Inverse folding.
């Protein structure tokens, strides 16, 4: 059974929020993908389902500005 589009969007948003918060607190070099995904309750393998690269994750919160 797959996840609904709404579930996927909520997960994506949660990861972006966590990453943005940690990047502000620790700087871009202060936290890695594995740390963000662990905090989001996900595996690193799930990262590629939501983001093309770490750079994509870093830039994603800026799109809201």
């Amino acid at each position: 059974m797959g996840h609904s589009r709404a579930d996927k969007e909520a997960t994506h948003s949660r990861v972006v929020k966590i990453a943005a918060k940690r990047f502000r607190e620790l700087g871009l070099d202060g936290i890695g993908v594995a740390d963000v995904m662990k905090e989001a309750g996900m595996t690193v393998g799930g990262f590629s389902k939501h983001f093309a690269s770490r750079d994509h994750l870093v830039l994603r919160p800026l799109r809201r500005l």
About this structure: The longest helix spans residues 5-26.
